[in-house]
Structure formats: C-alpha cells, structure tokens
Design goal:
With 290 residues, this protein is mainly α. 61% of the residues lie in helices and 5% in strands. It has one domain.
Length: 290
C-alpha cells in the first residue's frame, strides 16, 4: 500500500499550490450570495490523483456504506448546504476548501488567525500543518475542520459529513479559549465531546431545515460515523486499530440506526386514523432510540 501512496504523495508535495490552486468558478458566487460572505475554493480536478483518492477512501465507504464518502467529487448541492449553514451561524471567517491542497495558503491562514493564541497556533497548529502537507487529504481523504487555520476541508459528497465540520467550527467559535478547547479535542476519547456536540447540532439543524428525506439520510450517515469515531479512538492504540475500530464501531452505528428506523415505523403504525392520538401499545416499556 505504501509503495502505491509514496509516488503519488511525491507528486502532490512537489507540484503544490500550482497544481491544486483555487479554481475560479460559479461556486465563488454561490458562496457569497447570502447575507454574509463565505469563501469557497475548489481544487482543480486531477483524474489520476482523484482516482487514487477514491480507492484509498474505500475503508470510509465501507464504514458508512456509501460510495460518496471520500469520492473527491463534491457536488454544488453539498457545497451550498454547508455554505447556508455557515452563513446562518455567522461563520463568514471560515474558508471552505473543496478537494483542494494548498499548504502555503493554510500556513498564511495559521499566521492570520488571531482568535487562537500564538502558543497553540505554533505548536499544535504547526504540527497539524506538517501532517496536512505530508499526508494530504487531497489524496487520503477525511473531511475535517482545522480550528487553527479556520478551514473546513471537504472530500466527500455527503452533506451530513460536511455539516458536521461546520458544526465543529461553530462550536470552536463559541468558546472563550478556542485554542485550548481545540487542543484538548485532539486527545483520544476526549475528542468525542466535540463529535457528540456536532452530531446533535446537525440533527437539530436538519430537523428544522431539512426535508424528511434529508433528515433520514442524516441519521443514516451520522449514526455509523459517530459509532466509527468511537471505535477508532478506543482502538487507536492497537496496530491498524483506527481502521478496524472504525469499521466495528460503524457496524454498531448501522445497527442502532436500524433499530431507530424500526421504532419510528412502529410509532407511525400506532397512530389512530386521525393521526392525533396514539393507540395503546401492548408493551408500554418499549425502548425508543431517537
């Protein structure tokens, strides 16, 4: 596997910003169409690189059972839904990078992000930038929000995942000491705190803004993603534990979502014809997973 990755990594690092610089497009206009200005930059399509990234994203596709995970081909619909969320929450300082690799630009944003203390930016933040440069998401995937550069990086065409990163950006913005908070979220298990908050925030947002279909998809994606995050962090100390732990945790999340779906259907069948009064259940102590 590493013999396959290393040559492509070399191409990514040596070509740098010239190969994957921002691509002027209609997305810039869409992003700035709201009451605030959210800046979006897209990486230029590179068939070989994006194809390799699609293959390397297979574990995440399996975990979520969705081929759009780490597919390196993000639709304008997914992009717009994230931008709308950021605009509604006044997160206009956030930069959205869609399938882009720009280490120089990220370094400049690290220096300019005065909301995070210098100590955190030039320690934990610098380490994160080195990782970003040597292990680029443009190849390896993994949607994430970098609180030290205030950047959301997107490689999956799944709105629920992108909204989760936007929710983390909102969480960090609301903290009095964002650098300290973000640094502690890097600690295994402790980091599940912001994962939990982000998941609940996205579910709340979709409940008020999404269609019934979008709400169901959000549950279908976030439950295994959340379970996978737990599994990956718990097993992170084992060899390849992050990958296998994520797959195992995601399986639990899929099962939990299946139970939720069954219970939701049961709730519908217990309603009277008028749709107002529920019928009495044979077992009043049935579990409800919502």
């Amino acid at each position: 596997m590493m013999r396959l990755i290393l040559p492509i990594l070399l191409v990514v690092v040596t070509t740098g910003c010239a190969a994957f610089s921002p691509k002027p497009s209609e997305n810039m206009g869409v992003a700035q169409a709201g009451s605030t200005s959210v800046h979006v930059e897209r990486g230029r399509p590179v068939r070989l690189l994006d194809g390799a990234g699609w293959v390397l994203g297979t574990p995440n596709k399996l975990a979520l059972w969705d081929r759009r995970a780490d597919n390196h081909s993000v639709s304008s619909e997914t992009e717009v839904r994230l931008v709308e969320y950021l605009e509604e929450n006044n997160l206009d300082s956030v930069l959205v990078r869609v399938n882009q690799y720009d280490p120089l630009g990220e370094w400049q944003r690290l220096v300019a992000n005065k909301r995070v203390g210098v100590g955190w930016r030039y320690t934990v933040g610098t380490f994160g930038l080195v990782k970003y440069t040597l292990l680029p998401g443009r190849l390896l995937g993994g949607d994430w929000y970098n609180p030290y550069t205030d950047t959301v990086n997107i490689y999956s065409d799944i709105p629920a995942l992108t909204l989760s990163e936007g929710a983390y950006a909102k969480d960090v913005k609301d903290r009095k000491r964002p650098g300290t908070y973000a640094a502690f979220q890097e600690v295994p298990i402790v980091g599940m705190w912001h994962e939990t908050l982000a998941k609940n925030e996205v579910l709340r947002y979709e409940e008020s803004h999404g269609t019934p279909e979008q709400q169901e998809e959000t549950y279908r994606i976030l439950n295994p993603d959340y379970g996978g995050s737990w599994g990956g962090q718990v097993a992170s100390f084992l060899p390849y534990g992050n990958v296998f732990g994520r797959l195992a945790g995601a399986a639990v999340g899929h099962a939990a979502n299946g139970v939720r779906s069954i219970n939701k259907r049961e709730q519908r069948t217990t309603l009277s014809p008028s749709g107002n009064e529920p019928k009495k259940l044979a077992n009043k102590n049935q579990w409800r997973f919502q």
